[in-house]
Write a structure and sequence with these properties.
The structure holds two protein chains of two kinds. Chain A is an alpha/beta fold. Helix content of chain A is 40%, strand content 17%. Chain A starts with a helix and ends in a 5-residue tail after the last helix. Chain B starts with a helix and ends in an 11-residue tail after the last strand. Helix content of chain B is 51%, strand content 18%. Chain B is rod-shaped and about 200 Å long. Classes of the chains: A alpha/beta, B alpha+beta. Chains A and B meet through α1, α2, β2 and α10 of A and α1, α4 and α6 of B.
């Protein structure tokens, strides 16, 4: 039987080897990217990267939390070059996973979010904004500042996701605490009146359909949905807001670190940043890009990432004590 | 038990031989058949695949070529290429020209004229804003390619399972630049390709990085593509972990790649079933082999066991043993051979029994003929006395001498003193003298002290007889001398030499040679001499014996034996 196989195969194998030879990707043209972005975001960017550089990209997509775990595993086996997506606070917390890389345009980026040593690079900025239902809320009544959210009239009317499941929700709580003071946070949580959404994806639809009157979400999400025709209005808080960027970083033991560097340069490059702004409503991290109409200049509050990390336990304790499990 | 064992071992051997042959035939044949079949069907299948692949590739090429020529005609059309710019015509004129030029592909494609990133004229339905990024994606590519056609995907609807194919060309450098952009959506392309491939096949159109543009047929789920891409990335053999046949073709210089997939020629299950059949056949084969082996071994071992039984019977003495096999083969021959052999053996044995019986009979006769020697002796004594009484001295001498000889001869002792032996010779000669009319004399010359030496009895009488009968034949003044000497030599035992001399005609050289030779059988026919020599050698070994030599007048025979005054122990007893 072995004999039969032996005399049958060489020809086929030669052909297979030739085909493989023709299309196999040389090592220097490879890149492995782990991304927590949505497909509609990462795919056009990565395909453009492929087209422009001729580098084949292997994509592993998933949720931020699990992906950081995967990256840690893959890093040990030298099977990952880039982590793309996820708030920079996650990158900050997992700095040991990455190797420093200074993108060529480092000086053109928003310096507030540039990691000094280059362990990670910000990709786009995602300010926290308020939204309200145009049909149910008068413009004059709409909340314009963080303190407005404590108003009795919004009791039980604020669309807000459970911080246990949404990283953004925690950032919002922490921002509130840093802006309005820790003592006001329990008032805010009480004002939710036990009406909590299980995921952040439900915020826009539930405001849009009138279940809630107002909501707190990210500028990118709000703008995208407004463009798509949702009857909601976005408000930038007048005392300023927190704008946490998402990041991109080169992973330790990256097998294709040269291409990884190219990738970081590419996603922070002028064209991609501009594309991300026009196409995904993501605020560019570059300062040399003129913001298109609809991107207001915002007052940004310095968000203390370390403090946010420190008080995490307390905030969750407070949350759990004030919110009764009703869902 | 042993027979049974042999039968079994034979059967086993037979079984394994038959089994080996059968199994090797079944298994090798089966596998060869399946493999050959597989190769053949695979080849046929591949031929069909190639034809089918060509059909679909031709269809795709046709679409692309048509699109290319539409773009060509738009680029060459002054109204359209200058649609936006200083010489721009009215929208109506532009649209008229655009619809006319795009007619061949409008079934499946929409054609837009972009100025910068914004579509100004479109054959598409609705009002959906068709904004494309400039310096990025398809328009960026078209810009760089100058006035060559570029192929890319629509960045706004690209997914991991497909995208709208965009074919664009820059047609004017005025201002932001204007572009012809042809969109062929995934669904339109699929619809166009329907019927161009088999239902069980799959078709993929991808960009050069194997990112999907259109996945159709069985390849729609994208699994095959992601495996393929992974293999290329890992630098493995391209079809590792992919069961389908894959045909990859680059679509000219468009940067697009078409991948055609067809299901494997042989379902795994079919091959498996084939091998199962072989196993089943092998099982049947084993059973058949068992049957054949047992049958054949019986057919061989049965006659062998019959033969064995017959031999046993024969050994026990039944010479009438016969085998009835009723077979015409080798065993039949063996049986008839056996039968012939027993018949012959029976005859031989009967002959021998007959011969033995005859021998026994003569022996009995001989025994019956023997008389009691003592009776003879007494009778001779009586004859002597009767002769004396009747004054017949010759008869008295004859009977007395014969009685003396007889006494010595029948005595049980094997040895006697030399004087006794000489007495016997004297008595013998007395008888012979009467017989031969006193034609010779006997002279005995032996010293007294030697007379007491022991010699084997009856060794001299034959020598004297020889002299009388052969040597002195026809002589009337014959003389026989018997003398004895003790020979003493240092380092050797004493020997006794007895010489019998006659004055006859002399012994022949031939006889001397015969006597000298060690071979006792050489003296055949001369019993007397032979016996004496044999007896002496038997008693004393080869150093002793008789010697003969011819004298001028007569013969001298010398007997050499050890000298002994005691009676030696018998050797012959």
């Amino acid at each position: 039987m072995l004999l039969l196989c032996a005399c049958k195969n060489p020809h086929e194998e030669a052909i297979a080897a030739e085909i493989s030879q023709n299309y196999n990707v040389p090592k220097e043209k490879q890149l492995i990217v782990y991304t927590s972005h949505k497909e509609e975001v990462y795919l056009p960017i990565i395909m453009e990267f492929e087209n422009q550089t001729g580098i084949y990209v292997e994509i592993h997509a998933g949720g931020t939390t699990e992906l950081f775990k995967d990256v840690r595993e893959a890093s040990k086996e030298s099977a990952c070059d880039i982590m793309f997506g996820g708030g920079i606070e996650s990158f900050e917390a997992a700095k040991d996973l990455f190797i420093p890389y200074d993108t060529v345009d480092k000086d053109k980026l928003d310096q507030r979010y540039v990691q000094e040593r280059g362990f990670y690079t910000p990709f786009t900025e995602l300010p926290i904004v308020f939204i309200y239902n145009n049909k149910l809320v008068r413009k004059a009544d709409a909340p314009t500042s963080w303190s407005d959210l404590l108003d009795e009239k919004w009791k039980g009317q604020i669309a807000f996701a459970n911080p246990h499941s949404s990283g953004t929700s925690y950032t919002i709580l922490s921002s509130f605490s840093q802006i309005e003071g820790e003592d006001k946070l329990d008032d805010f949580i009480n004002n939710l009146d036990n009406h909590v959404l299980s995921t952040s994806g439900e915020i826009i639809p539930s405001v849009s359909n009138g279940t809630f009157l107002v909501g707190i979400t990210l500028e990118e999400t709000a703008k995208k949905n407004i463009l798509a025709g949702d009857d909601i209005t976005m408000v930038y808080p007048k005392e300023g807001t927190v704008s946490l960027p998402d990041g991109v970083a080169m992973v330790k033991n990256a097998p294709h670190s040269y291409n990884a560097g190219k990738f970081i340069d590419f996603v922070t490059g002028f064209d991609t940043q501009k594309y991300a702004m026009s196409r995904f409503c993501r605020r560019p991290v570059r300062k040399d890009i003129a913001l298109t109409v609809g991107f207001e200049k915002i007052e940004e509050i310095d968000y203390d990432i370390e403090k946010a990390a420190k008080e995490e336990e307390n905030i969750f304790l407070l949350w759990d004590s004030l919110i009764k499990e009703e869902e | 038990m042993k027979k049974l064992l042999i039968k079994h071992s034979f059967k086993k051997k037979l079984f394994f031989i038959v089994l080996a042959i059968t199994l090797s035939l079944v298994i090798c044949g089966g596998i060869l058949t399946i493999q050959g079949f597989q190769v053949r069907i695979k080849a046929d299948h591949e031929r069909d695949d190639v034809v089918q692949e060509e059909v679909i590739n031709q269809r795709v090429e046709e679409i692309l070529n048509n699109t290319e020529s539409v773009i060509d005609s738009i680029a060459e059309n002054a109204t359209l290429s200058g649609a936006i710019g200083p010489k721009s015509k009215s929208a109506l004129d532009v649209y008229a020209a655009l619809y006319e030029a795009s007619a061949p592909i409008r079934d499946f494609a929409t054609v837009d004229i972009y100025f910068g990133g914004v579509s100004h004229f479109s054959t598409g339905r609705g009002d959906a804003s068709r904004v494309l990024p400039v310096d990025y994606a398809v328009l960026g590519k078209a810009d760089k390619a100058d006035s060559k056609t570029v192929y890319d995907v629509d960045p706004s609807d690209v997914t991991m399972s497909g995208a709208t194919l965009m074919i664009a060309r820059k047609i004017s450098d005025y201002g932001l630049g204007s572009y012809v952009v042809v969109r062929i959506s995934e669904d339109s392309l699929k619809k166009e390709l329907t019927g161009a491939f088999n239902a069980r096949d799959g078709f993929m159109l991808t960009n050069e990085f194997f990112r999907p543009i259109c996945l159709a047929g069985t390849a729609e789920d994208g699994v095959t593509l992601s495996k393929l891409r992974k293999n290329f990335f890992k630098r493995d053999i391209y079809n590792k972990d992919i069961r389908e046949n894959i045909y990859i073709k680059k679509m000219g210089d468009t940067g697009l790649i078409s991948v055609y997939t067809t299901p494997p020629a042989f379902e795994e299950s079919a091959v498996k079933a084939g091998y199962q059949i072989i196993i089943f056949q092998a099982f049947i084969g084993v059973l058949l082999c068992l049957l054949v082996a047992s049958r054949m071994s019986t057919s061989i071992s049965r006659p062998i066991s019959i033969l064995t039984m017959a031999m046993k019977q024969f050994r026990k003495g039944d010479f009438d043993t016969k085998i009835e096999l009723n077979r015409e083969d080798e065993f039949g021959q063996l049986a008839s051979g056996f039968n012939k052999m027993t018949a012959q053996l029976k005859e031989t044995i009967q002959d021998r029994v007959e011969a033995e019986r005859k021998v026994n009979e003569s022996r009995i006769e001989l025994m019956q003929a023997q008389l009691n020697p003592h009776f003879l002796y007494n009778t001779l004594d009586t004859i002597k006395w009767v002769a004396k009484a009747n004054q017949v001295p010759e008869v008295a001498t004859l009977s007395s001498s014969l009685a003396t000889i007889l006494r010595t001869a029948i005595s049980e002792s094997q040895f006697c003193m030399l004087e006794n032996e000489l007495d016997l010779v004297k008595n013998y000669c007395d008888i012979q003298k009467i017989r031969f009319d006193d034609c010779f004399d006997l002279e005995i010359d032996v010293e007294k002290d030697i007379l007491k030496a022991y010699v084997p009895k009856l060794i001299l009488q034959p020598l004297v007889e020889n002299s009388i009968i052969h040597g002195l034949e026809g002589r009337s003044d014959g003389k026989i001398t018997v003398s004895a000497l003790k020979i003493i030599k240092e380092g050797e035992p004493d020997a006794l030499e007895i010489v019998v001399k006659d004055n006859g005609k002399g012994i022949s050289d031939e006889m001397i040679a015969l006597i000298e030779s060690d071979d006792p059988s050489a003296l055949e026919g001369h019993l007397g001499l032979k016996n004496v020599n044999t007896i002496i050698r038997l008693f004393y070994g080869k150093n002793y014996g008789i010697k003969a030599c011819r004298l001028d007048d007569g013969t001298k025979i010398t007997v050499l034996i050890p000298f002994s005054l005691k009676e030696p122990k018998g050797v012959m007893s």
